[in-house]
Specification:
The structure is a single chain. This protein has about 750 residues and is α+β, with helices and mostly antiparallel strands. It is built from 27 helices and 24 strands. The strands form 6 sheets. The chain has a 7-stranded mixed sheet, sandwiched between helices. Strands 9-13-12-11-10 form a 5-stranded antiparallel sheet, covered by helices on one side. A 4-stranded antiparallel sheet has the order 21-22-23-24. Helix 14 (about 345-355) packs antiparallel against helix 26 (about 655-660) and helix 15 (about 400-415) runs parallel beside helix 16. The longest helix has 22 residues, at about 540-565. The radius of gyration is 41 Å and the shape is elongated.
Length: about 750
């Protein structure tokens, strides 16, 4: 479209000052013979006052455009004909806007009436008051050579997706301008280079010598921070490229941070395909690793930042979940605290365990796999549906007697355990844990996980028969049955029997367990299940680790509150399933009534047991240990046409389950909303990198089968013979390697 230079006389002023738009052609050359300007760019300056225009003002304009003095100026007055290259003029017109289009943003134009230079009257009229409301006082107008129009501002949130440039465009900072140029180059698939790149001015051009695309921006003198585009040639005449130096790991991490936030397991194949679709470039595997690492830093923050905000995180946790316990222990390096441990017990979990769960707690520890290694200590109970119920957790530097005692002292206060007679523990034979429980809870029952006991047992005593005999002794519910199993073990292997007699049976056999917990479990599976549930969190930085655990517990509590309304019976689904299984086993039993609610039951093994329905006891002790009728009691109940659920202990009932899961774990606000405690930021512990690649997968036992769908068993306990020499301990290939000696 055609652009007209606007000139008019200001009405109501003492001096008749004329303002007009100054069109500046630059970065080209002037042909005096043909009276034409060749090449270059066009920049417009609006509201130029003719009385203040001089060579000094032109020097200011030239500096504003990024040129160095001295320069040659060619001046053509209004109305004289000057020829310009039409392509350059058209390109400039696309990026320039009529100044009258900006007047509405500053003031409302009423009736307009003024005189044009040729004497004709226009429909433009501005009063003095309306003029001063925009340009300031009359004194300020006299000392201002020109007033520029309002230029468009670059919005980083919306414009970075597809940047569009124009002369006069302003950027909040030099970094934002650089990001916009890089984004433009990637979007247009062009190779550009920063020819001038310093804090005050930036000039970018196309790498192709035959392409005239370029953009120049410099800092504004008003705030020494804002950048403004002074020169812009928008047309690319070069070909597109599909290998761009701006496509680096940092850029890709920022670009695809949301994809990794939604899907942390986004693999290399999906990443490479997305990069091809967006930029038509191929990514390397290491580029993917570095981009993912950078994205994780943007999502989770750096490790140092997370340790520094532990105080704030604990304050937010206590604020949103009143009554919760958070305890942080640090060592001092001068006046700077260095992280050692953190303990967390949420108020909802504490209340739910006290009101709805049995008095048995499993303790376990697992490795933290992140940059700063440590141990995660957990305390897990058993809910009325025979499922795990996490109580408290802690991150410590190592697993020893000191850390376990620190953890159990805090847990003892939270659970209000004043009398250790009414509590039972089940643990592995971990370092220092046995001594810590003995010191703090001397009268409590302490059970050992039989699976871990067997792992130690099979090191010296291998074989399926010994394994079955050991488990038979552990599952025996009476002392007589236990003695029979141990006598059989002595017949099979005297050394195995001697090894087991050194272990106190009160810690690993049901025959010596107390009856008050109503739980006969022999393995610490609930702790193992919790460790498996939080497996993804164990390689994260400290606050991310704690938040993932809290989120898991919060969602689990909410899920259980919904599930309980779908129960069809007064007991949970797992307990009901167990009752149905016991019913099927009663087919081989026969009961005889004795009197006073006493029955005699004979099973298919020709063993007899006395059952007291009123006191809910059986001579086999299974009913007393578990709280659910055993097979002998179930035979009596079914023969008498009674409801078995009525004889189940109250700890399995629906009401108790609701008490356990009714408390609510409340969510937390984001880090920007956390309270500022003002405490000295905690420094992360010293990290010593070990040689080799960090191990993240658990080392399997020799008799464990992989869960990866393998169809071939490992050669356990198989002696390898060499085909060449016949010796034991190596094969043909390794025997050949052993014969090779260094020269």
């Amino acid at each position: 479209m055609e652009r007209r230079t606007i000139c008019f006389r200001l009405i109501g002023s003492n001096n008749e000052e004329e303002a007009f738009t100054l069109r500046v052609h630059h970065h080209g050359r002037f042909n005096e013979a043909k009276n034409e300007y060749i090449g270059g760019e066009v920049t417009y300056f609006d509201w130029v006052c003719i009385d203040f225009l001089s060579l000094l003002n032109l020097d200011v304009i030239a500096k504003d455009l990024g040129y160095r003095l001295p320069l040659s100026y060619y001046w053509k007055e209004y109305g004289e004909n000057v020829e310009y290259e039409q392509e350059v003029e058209d390109a400039a017109m696309e990026d320039c806007v009529d100044p009258t289009s900006y007047w509405e943003q500053s003031f409302e134009i009423p009736e307009m009436a003024s005189e044009d230079r040729d004497g004709s009257e226009s429909d433009m009229h501005l009063s003095e008051g309306e003029l001063n409301s925009v340009d300031g006082s009359e004194e300020e107008r006299r000392h201002t050579p020109w007033v520029r129009k309002t230029y468009p501002e670059f919005n980083a949130e919306t414009d970075l997706k597809d940047p569009k440039f124009q002369v006069g465009q302003v950027f909040a900072s030099a970094d934002l301008f650089r990001k916009a140029v890089r984004a433009h180059a990637l979007k247009q698939r062009r190779a550009v280079v920063f020819e001038k790149n310093d804090p005050n001015r930036i000039r970018v051009g196309c790498k192709s010598e035959n392409c005239g695309w370029q953009i120049f921006a410099s800092i504004l003198s008003e705030d020494r921070r804002t950048f403004k585009v002074k020169t812009y040639t928008p047309l690319h005449t070069c070909a597109m490229v599909f290998k761009n130096g701006f496509v680096n790991s940092n850029m890709l991490g920022r670009k695809y941070v949301n994809q990794w936030r939604v899907n942390p397991d986004w693999n290399f194949a999906g990443f490479a395909q997305q990069l091809r679709d967006d930029y038509s470039v191929d990514a390397s595997l290491w580029q993917y690793y570095r981009a993912r690492k950078h994205a994780k830093k943007l999502i989770e923050g750096t490790v140092k930042e997370q340790y520094a905000r532990i105080w704030d995180y604990c304050a937010e946790l206590r604020r949103m979940n009143p009554g919760s316990t958070t305890q942080v222990k640090c060592s001092l390096d001068g006046d700077i605290p260095v992280f050692q441990r953190i303990y967390i017990c949420l108020a909802a979990l504490r209340k739910g365990w006290l009101e709805g769960c049995r008095r048995i707690i499993g303790l376990d520890g697992c490795f933290i796999k992140g940059q700063h290694r440590g141990q995660l200590l957990i305390a897990v109970g058993v809910d009325p549906n025979n499922q795990m119920y996490p109580i408290a957790y802690a991150v410590v530097e190592t697993e020893n007697r000191e850390t376990w005692q620190w953890f159990l002292e805090l847990l003892k206060v939270d659970l209000n355990i004043n009398n250790s007679h009414g509590i039972a523990w089940i643990t592995d034979k971990q370092k220092g844990l046995i001594d810590a429980i003995t010191d703090l809870f001397p009268n409590s029952e302490h059970r050992f996980c039989v699976k871990h006991l067997h792992n130690n047992f099979k090191v010296y005593h291998k074989g399926l028969l010994l394994k079955q005999t050991l488990w038979g002794a552990a599952t025996a519910a009476t002392e007589q049955r236990f003695a029979q199993k141990m006598a059989y073990m002595r017949e099979v292997s005297a050394s195995a029997y001697e090894w087991m007699t050194d272990k106190d049976p009160r810690h690993w056999s049901r025959a010596f367990f107390k009856e008050f917990p109503k739980c006969d479990m022999l393995c610490n599976n609930y702790c193992e299940g919790f460790n498996s549930a939080i497996l993804e969190a164990r390689d994260k930085p400290i606050i991310t680790l704690l938040e993932m655990i809290r989120n898991y517990l919060m969602k689990r509590m909410a899920k259980k509150r919904v599930e309980v309304d779908k129960w069809h019976h007064l007991v949970g689904p797992k307990v009901f399933k167990f009752i149905e299984k016991v019913k099927l086993e009663t087919s081989g039993c026969h009961s005889d009534f004795c009197g006073n609610n006493i029955f005699q039951v004979r099973n298919f093994e020709q063993d007899q047991f006395v059952v007291d329905i009123q006191n809910r006891t059986c001579a086999c002790r299974r009913w007393q240990l578990v709280g659910i009728p055993c097979v002998h009691a179930m035979c009596v109940i079914m023969t008498s046409n009674m409801d078995p659920i009525q004889f189940v202990d109250d700890c399995y009932k629906k009401d108790r389950y609701k008490l356990a899961y009714d408390p609510v774990i409340y969510g937390l606000n984001g880090p920007s909303m956390w309270p500022q405690t003002g405490d000295t930021p905690i420094r992360c512990p010293e990290f010593k990198k070990q040689r080799g690649r960090p191990r993240k997968a658990r080392k399997l036992q020799s008799d464990e089968v992989r869960q990866d769908g393998t169809t071939r068993l490992r050669k356990n306990y198989v002696l390898i013979h060499c085909r060449r020499c016949g010796q034991v301990g190596h094969n043909k290939k390794r025997g050949r390697q052993q014969k090779k000696t260094p020269k």
